[in-house]
Every structure is written in structure tokens, then in C-alpha cells.
Inverse folding.
């Protein structure tokens, strides 16, 4: 029985009860939810669209990050009714919600099935233990007719997993605190 209890404590996906508990901590696991009833699911939390940007320059990656260049983007403008129509291509999404990862969790996100069924996909990086910020994702529109997205649309579900051994050191990369100002 002790072996099973240990398994349930680490390496498991947080369920609704644990998510609600973590949302009440200081800082909350996620701050700035638009509508808790609609965004908090059984196994994860939906993140929503704050802004959409198109890429306007190339990026560069290397082993040490000494020559890393993050691609420049240009913000797209929602129309008077809060919609943006994006054509086939790649876009950067900035989420409304601020994520504050404790050192005992890591997170992944998957696109909502409605996005996939509309001919688009969403890619995210891993949310490292100790990260805090308003995260970004890559929207790929494959549908030749494009996609309409409304401001604050639920677009992806973030899923949190307990680490078997909490980290002693929090994430301290260049994206710590991103999009908070």
C-alpha cells in the first residue's frame, strides 16, 4: 500500500480537486482566469487568447544561446466585435493567464479538440518548475480557408504533473517573468 501512495503523490496529473486547491495558493497556480466555471476542467485548465501576433523576421538557435535570436512579431488587431481572421500560416499566441509554477510541478498543454477540428494546431513548450509569466504558444493554421478567433477564446488545456522529486532551484531562464509588464 505504501508503494501505491507514493505513486499517487508523484508523477500523476493533478485533478480538479488539486487544481482548485492550487488556485487558492499565494501566488495562485494560474492567475487571471476569465471564467473559472468554463476554464477549469476535470484534468486541466483552459488557457485563453489575449493577443495574436504574426511573425515578421527569422529566428536563430544555437547550442549555447549566445547567438539565439527570437523572431520579431507584429500584433494583429481584433475587429470591433472582438474577432481576428487568420489565414493559413504560423502565429504567436499570448495567453491572458499568468502561470506560477511551484517547484514540485511541471506542465504540458494540448490544443482543445475544437481547434484541431477546425484545421489548426497549437504547440507549446514545457512549463518548467519555478517558471512564472504570461506564456506564449505557436498557432499553426492548416485550414486553407483560415480560422476566426475571438478575443478570450479558450484555445488550449494545460495539464500539471507532480514531480517525483521537487526541484531545489526554480527556472531562471530569459523567459522568466515574460509578458508581465
Amino acid at each position: 500500500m505504501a508503494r501505491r501512495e507514493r505513486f499517487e503523490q508523484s508523477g500523476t496529473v493533478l485533478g480538479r480537486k488539486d487544481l482548485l486547491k492550487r488556485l487558492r495558493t499565494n501566488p495562485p497556480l494560474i492567475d487571471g482566469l476569465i471564467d473559472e466555471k468554463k476554464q477549469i476542467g476535470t484534468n486541466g485548465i483552459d488557457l485563453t487568447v489575449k493577443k495574436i501576433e504574426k511573425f515578421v523576421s527569422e529566428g536563430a538557435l544555437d547550442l549555447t544561446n549566445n547567438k539565439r535570436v527570437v523572431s520579431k512579431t507584429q500584433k494583429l488587431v481584433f475587429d470591433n466585435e472582438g474577432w481576428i481572421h487568420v489565414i493559413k500560416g504560423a502565429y504567436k499566441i499570448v495567453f491572458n493567464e499568468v502561470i506560477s509554477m511551484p517547484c514540485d510541478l511541471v506542465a504540458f498543454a494540448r490544443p482543445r479538440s475544437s481547434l484541431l477540428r477546425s484545421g489548426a494546431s497549437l504547440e507549446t513548450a514545457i512549463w518548467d518548475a519555478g517558471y512564472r509569466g504570461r506564456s506564449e504558444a505557436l498557432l499553426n493554421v492548416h485550414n486553407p480557408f483560415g480560422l476566426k478567433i475571438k478575443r478570450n477564446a479558450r484555445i488550449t488545456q494545460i495539464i500539471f504533473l507532480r514531480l517525483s522529486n521537487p526541484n531545489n532551484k526554480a527556472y531562471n531562464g530569459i523567459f522568466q517573468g515574460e509578458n508581465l509588464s
User: Anything to note?
Assistant: Residues 2-51+84-162 form a domain with the Deoxyuridine 5'-Triphosphate Nucleotidohydrolase; Chain A fold (CATH 2.70.40.10). Confidence is low (pLDDT under 50) at residues 1-8.
